[in-house]
Amino acid sequence: PRETTAAEDDFTVEQSRRTPFTPATELASQLRGMTVKDVTAQTVRDRLRAAGLRCYHPAKFLHLSDVHRET
Asked: Where are the extended beta strands (E) located within 5-68?
């Protein structure tokens, strides 16, 4: 049996689309605040993956000093 209803899944997907850099743990705590159910972050990840959403990773850049920028 599924831990979440279709409406809760829709809420999770919509929240993720509004704020795409929100971690699954925070989305799970928001969903826990709305419902009585204990929803895990892994459940949220599974629902987002089923909806075709993928996680975002911050880009990594090399921090250049002023000496590097001169050349």
From this structure: none
36 is written with which tokens?
A: 């009585």
Provide the CA 50 distance to its chain's centre, in angstroms.
Answer: 13
pTM beyond cutoff 0.70:
yes
Instruction: Name the token pair of 53.
Output: 């959403």
In the chain, the amino acid numbered 25 is T
CA torsion 6-8-11-15 (nearest 10°) is -130
Matching residue, tokens 């969903």: 31
Instruction: Please name the residue that has the structure tokens 């997907």.
Output: 13
Mean pLDDT of 57-64: 77
Helix (H) or strand (E) holding 12: helix 6-18
